Amino acid sequence: MTTITKVSQRMLGRSDIQVSPMGLGCWAIGGVWYWLDGPGGWGDIDDNESVRAIHAALDLGINFFDTAANYGTGHSERVLARALEGKRDKAVIATKFGFVVDEAAKRVTFRTDDHLLHVWDECEESLRRLNTDVIDLYQLHVWDYPLEKVPAMVELLESLVSQGKIRYYGWSTDSVEGARLFAQGKHCVAIQHDLNVILDAPEMLALCEELNLASVNRSALARGALSGKYTKDTVFPQNDVRTDSWSYDHFFAPTLSQLDALRDILTSNGRTLVQGALAWIWARSEKTIPIPGFKTVAQVEENARAMELGPLTTEQMQEIDTLLGR
Question: How much is the pTM?
Answer without folding.
Answer: 0.96
